[in-house]
Design brief:
With about 80 residues, the chain is an alpha+beta fold. It has 3 helices and 2 strands. The chain has a two-stranded parallel sheet with strand order 1-2. The radius of gyration is 15 Å and the shape is extended.
């Protein structure tokens, strides 16, 4: 996979902390960072400044993915 390594942030959901998920992420040069419980309390301001501009793009991309999947008869489970 060309390009720089990726950093993915996840919560404490058990699937995000599994050994299998970690192995698959490292194989693709993606590093998993786990956020502690109640992290949103001090990360909330980042939603307005740093991540705010990404939300409209993310919603449009996700809507397109869901529409394409439904039209093709595929699952939207990963949307």
């Amino acid at each position: 996979m060309p390009g720089p390594p990726l950093t993915l942030f996840g919560d404490q959901f058990s699937a995000h902390m599994s050994t299998d998920a970690l192995k698959r992420a490292l194989k693709r040069q993606a590093y998993l960072c786990r956020l502690e419980a109640n992290a949103s309390y001090f990360l909330q301001p980042e939603n307005a400044g740093l991540f705010g501009p990404l939300y409209p793009f993310s919603r449009r991309t996700n809507d397109t993915y869901i529409f394409d999947a439904v039209m093709a008869g595929n699952s939207t489970r990963d949307a």
